[in-house]
Structures are given as structure tokens and as C-alpha cells.
Amino acid sequence: MGVEVVTGGAVEAVAPAKEVSVAVAPGAAAVAKNTSFREESNRLGDLKDGERKALAELRAKVEEAIVEGKLFDLEDTTAATASSKVKVEKKKKEKKEGKKKKEKVAEEKKAEVDVKVEVAAAATEEKKTEEEAVEEKKAEEAKVEEATEEKKEEATAEPAEEKKQEEEAATAEDAGEAEKADTAAPAAAVVVDKDVALWGVPLLPSKGDEATDVVLLKFLRARDFKAGAAFEMLRRTLRWRRDWTTLPSASATSSSSDAVPEGACRLDGADREGHPVCYNALGVFADDAVYRAALGDGEGRARFLRWRVSAMESHVAQLDFAPGGAASLLQVTDLKGSPGPARKDFRVAIRQVVDLFQDNYPELVARNILINVPFSYYAFSTLFYPFLTQRTKSKFVVARPSKVTETLLKYIPIEAIPVKYGGLKRDGDTEFSAEDAEIAEVVVKASSTETIEIEATEGDTTLTWDLTVLGWEVGYKEEFVPSDEGSYTIVVSKGRKMGAAEEAVRNSFRAGEPGKVVITVENATRGKKKVMFRHKAKSSSAKKC
User: Fold this and answer.
1) How many CA atoms lie within 13 A of 37 on its CB side?
2) Are residues 178 and 223 in the same domain?
3) CA Rg, the chain, in Å?
4) CA distance 45 to 53
């Protein structure tokens, strides 16, 4: 992997402590504070016109949703409304079927009346003479017709009136159902909470908190500044967080089987831009006992996920969401000794973590650096890479074992990189702090040797130094050479070959007389090597003062 390096030219001596003079040999230069990448700006003035327009649109959507109480349950409201409409339609259908039955009953009654009239007329006709029968028949027929007409009017008037009343009642009932459906959702929705927040940042734009825009910009960038898609992503994240609280947290359990191995995930220092650095060491899960404890039972994956989410929440709490602040993490994942693709549960658990973080923690990782990457990783990565967005993929940086320190140095100062990764940072260090000594560097060309001299102008002085070589694979030795030519040279550290996996060297020497410590670095390889170091001196006379 091509990595930017810092080059220096002029010689720069490090200031001595008290009256002790400490000199560095020519060729050493102070390391420049190089910043090779910068997170996208969260300041409103730095956004493009289209980005500002999208932010304004998202702000309006969030404001409206919070004020109307629809931020969480809009989907539930829609479902309730649809269900109510189905019920109304069902009742309408039942009423129509009832009306048809009533009309059929009315027709049957009319037919019965006609039959009764005909029977009565036949019985009377037998008792009459032909002339009387004819006259009476005419009169009877007229009466029958008149009665029939009245019956018809009654038979038809009653269903018509009843139908009218039923239609009016149905209309009123439908209107009531519709109104009830329209008002049911807000009544069932979550109580309006104008203090709703995400990662400790209020989401209601009208509150005027500048951090609100920083959070909203993360969702916009995750969705290519499409306000609608960003709003839906924000809603899903909030709903997930609300539902996630119903699950037991990793810290809530006291069982030893739930304990996560020490060092598996921790924050340690900051990068050049001030982002907190999160180190993940997956190699701890290679141990069978640890693996079984973490992922070995039916609840293993769920427990692993709860632990990782809990860790992420604690890390996000360290971020500064103010415009210009460090609003994302630099994540370093060490794959050295990690379980291979054969560990299915581990592979699935990692995939779940990646998916969950991509969906619910957008733009909270500035860079994701994978170090000590084995060849098997490339086969493993093909399983989850297709599910990553292009933006997420662009944040991955991969470093083989021989390039770990060089890669980390591109983003993190050497004094903030842990010694296990070739840096100078030691846990609980009482010798050096960031203000103690400036970092200097020396370039050792191919097939050549360079020396670093740390000089003490008086006796009874203790010299202490930290030194690392990027990539090592060099010869290394340390000697003290007295200023008095009659004194003997003292071997501080005999010459030895330093392999690629060496940690930074820390050593000290108490000089009983004036002289200098000479550090020799021999580079027998075909490529140049870079030495980075710091040192300090303490004299007994300075302590007495």
C-alpha cells in the first residue's frame, strides 16, 4: 500500500533538560505534523448549494414529524387507517345485502295479496246470476284494482322509506367510521416529545442546537443527500434504538460466560485530526475457550452483538458533534490470529455487526483500517463486501503485517500508536508524555548505516530514549562513548538483528562522566528505512536544585 511519508532535511537539535546538553547527530530532523486526510466539513458555510438545500428539506421533515408526533409511529398509523377503511367497506357491503333481502320480502307479500283477491272473487261469482255476476264482477274488479294499487303503494312506499332511512344512517355511520379512522392514529401515537435526541443531540431543529445539523448531515451523506431517503433512515434508526432498549445490555449480565475478553475493543488515544481511535483485536477469539464463552451457545451471537453495540455506544459518547468537532471515530481492526472463515458463527456475527452499524451509525467511522491482514481475509471479505455501500467501502484501508506502522502513521502520530503496532505509546507511561520531547527522524538509505548520538555534557546524568524503525529488518546496537579518550567504551546493548515484528525500543543509561550514547542502525536491505525517536536527560544536579 502506498503511504505518505514525512521527509526532512535540516538538522534540528533537541533542547536539553536543565543544564544537560543533549545533541543529535546530523541527518535527524523533527517530524512535521502532517495531516494526510481530513473529514468532510460539518460547517454550514462549507456545504454546496445542493447540500444546503437537502439539509433544509430534512430539517423541515424532522421538525414536522416531531411536532405532529409522527417521528416514530407513522407506519403504524398508516396501517391502522387502512384497517379502519377495510372495516367500513365490509359494513357497507353487509348493509347492501340486507336491503336486497328486504326488497325480496316485499315482492313476496305483494304476490300473496294477488292470490287472496282472486280466490275471493271466484267464491262470490258462483252465487250470482249471470247478469248480477257480470255487474258485480266489474265492481269487484274495480275494487280489487283499487285495493291492489293501494297495496302496491304501501308495499313500495315502506321499502323506499326504509331504504332512504338506512342509506342516511349508513352515510352517517360511514362518515363516523372515516372520521374515527382519521383520528385513531394520532390517539394511538406516541406522546409528542419535543426533547427527542440521538447520541445526546436534540433532533428538533427549532431548538437551535448547532449539533443537530451535524447529526442530520451524517444521514444525508449516507444517502447521497437525498432528503427523503435520509429521513426514512433516521426514522428506522430511532425505531431500532427504541426497540433495542428492550434487550438486556451486555453489562447487565453477571455471568462469566458473557464477559468479553480484555483488549477485544477499546479506545486508545486520538488521530491527527482529534478523532478517538478504537482498536479491535479479533485474535483474542482464536482461543477455543474464549470462542466458546463468547459464541459457543445458542445465545452467543445475540450476546456478541449486544456487547459490540454497548461498546459502540460508549465510544460515540466521546464524540464532539459541534461543527468543527471530532464527530466520528477512527477504527483499527487487528486481524492477527483471528478466527478464519471456518468459524461460521464468528463470520455471521461479524456480518451482523457490519450491517447493523452501517444502518444505524451512519458516518460515525471516519476510516476503518484493517491491519495484519492474512491472505484468508480476501476470501472472507467477499462474503460481506457486496452488502456494503460504496461510501462505506471507500473508508476501508488494508495493511499487510509488514506495512502496519507505516499505514497507521498516515493517520496517527507515532507517539499515539501503541508499541505493539510499532509506535511509541505505552500504557501507564511515566517517562514520556506528549509535551516531554519532540519526535525526530532519520532516514537510513539502502545498504548503508546511520548513527544517532545523544550527548551529555556532564557526569551523573541519566539518558532515556524511545526508538522505532518502520519495518525494522535492520542491525541495531547501543554504546556509551566517554568524552575522555582514556576511558573505555561501554556496550549498552550489543548488536543484534531486529526483525519486522519488533516493538519500539526503550532504554536508558546513567552516565558517570561526560560522553554520548551512540545508537547504530545498519540497513542491509534494498529499500530505505525510517528511524523515529525521542529522548530526554535527567542530571543529579538538576534534581538537587
Assistant:
1) 18
2) no
3) 43
4) 12
Spatial distance between the Cα atoms of 432 and 441, rounded to a whole number of angstroms: 17
Q: Are 362 and 488 part of one and the same domain?
A: no
What pLDDT does residue 258 have? Answer: 46
Instruction: Please indicate, yes or no, whether residues 135 and 237 belong to a single structural domain of this protein.
Output: no
CA-based torsion, 291, 294, 296, 301: positive or negative: negative
**202 and 65 within one domain:** yes
| Model pLDDT, residue 81 | 42
What the block records as the C-alpha cell of 477 is: 546496537
Kindly report, residue by residue over 517-539, the tens digit of the pLDDT.
Answer: 999 999 999 999 999 999 999 98
Domain assignment of residue 126, yes or no: yes
19 within some domain = no
What pLDDT is stored for residue 291 in this prediction? 84
Distance CA 160, CA 153 (A): 10
Q: What single string gives the DSSP state of each residue in 263-278?
A: TSEEEEEE-TTS-EEE
Q: Rounded to whole angstroms, what are the CA distances from 480 to 453, 474, 487, 488?
A: 9, 20, 11, 9
Q: CB–CB of 468/532 below 8 Å?
A: yes
- Helix then strand count (H, E) for the chain reads 12, 16
Q: Is the pLDDT of residue 279 over 90?
A: yes
Q: Find the DSSP H helices in 263-411.
A: 288-295, 300-316, 344-360, 376-384, 390-393, 404-411
CA dist list (Å): 68 to 204, 233, 290, 375, 396: 12, 19, 49, 54, 40
Strand 461-469 and strand 505-511: pairing?
antiparallel
Q: Are residues 226 and 258 in the same domain?
A: no
* CA atoms of 246 and 195, how far apart (whole Å): 21
**Residue 519 sits in which domain range?**
29-33+420-544
Q: What is the pTM of this model?
A: 0.71
Pair 170, 202 in one domain: no
Stretch (H or E) spanning 181: helix 130-188
Do both 90 and 151 map to the same domain? yes
**Distance in angstroms (rounded) separating the CA atoms of residues 278 and 404:** 16
Strand segments, DSSP code E, in 409-528 are 440-444, 448-456, 461-469, 474-482, 490-498, 505-511, 515-523
> Are 58 and 220 within 8 A, CB to CB?
yes
Distance CA(374)–CA(361), nearest Å, equals 28
Residue 486 corresponds to which cell in the numbers above?
A: 582514556
CATH number at 484 reads 2.60.120.680
Find out whether 55 and 294 touch, Cβ atoms under 8 Å: no
Residue 115, C-beta contacts closer than 8 angstroms, at least 6 positions apart: none
Considering only the C-alpha atoms of the chain, give the largest distance between any 2 of them, rounded to a whole number of Å: 174
What pLDDT, on the 0 to 100 scale, is given for residue 470? 94
DSSP assigned state of 1: -
